[in-house]
Here is the input.
Amino acid sequence: MTETSGSDVAAELTTARAQTALQAARAGASVAAEHFRSDVAVETKGGDTDVVTVADREAQAAVVETVADAYPDDELVGEEGDLRKDVPDEGPAWVVDPVDGTNNFVRGLRTFATAVAAVVDGEPVAAANVLPAAGDTYVTDGEAVYRDGTPVTVSDVTEPGLGCVVPTVWWPPERRAEYARACEGIVSRFADLRRPGCAQAALGRLAAGSLEGVVTNVECNPWDTVGGVHLVRTAGGRVTNLDGERWRVGDRGLVASNGHLHDEVLAAAREIDAEL
Here is the structure.
């Protein structure tokens, strides 16, 4: 495996959209990092744990500016403000999460990411997830996945008893029983679980071989998932919905794995719905 310095990653990418995704994610992450562990005001959106800060808005603006400079006619899909909220089925578009893991961000925890993905006709073609406080960058052009400049792939773990799986995307208070079943389904099958509190970070770590699975039965927003899904697939992993079919934006549930353990990861995910 050839090591590439972080500053040379863009030169290694084979598509202009991948280079723009990386540039835009770095721009947004730089803005978020400036606000990290500062006295930033916290607002709520859809619930007590659905929070937003000025960092989210300013980071998104930095991403949008970078993308628009390179691709002024492309659609923009994003979490904050008046950006489009769904991925178009046709044509090029960009999917942006300025701060994925805002609850970590406001608590001073380092696991948060700026995620930027390019899609064409609804399918991702490039993605970059930058975790400024953790010091990690995951990027792919569909040919290879790099973590901090080094090519990576999913793990080769084939034994469930050696696997580590993440329950991701937050379950609201009225659905905490599902969260409990997710945790039980994981710990009864695998060595352990992790919950980083940032879906894009979890998917990036799966792509880099640090985890073996990521699961939820929740319908996911595109900005929480599209870039990370592309990372996992390009790195050799598998991503499906709860029916075991190839995952697409809009599906309920997301089951991602290193491929070797997909049946077991899928079984754990399906168990979340056991009593619904």
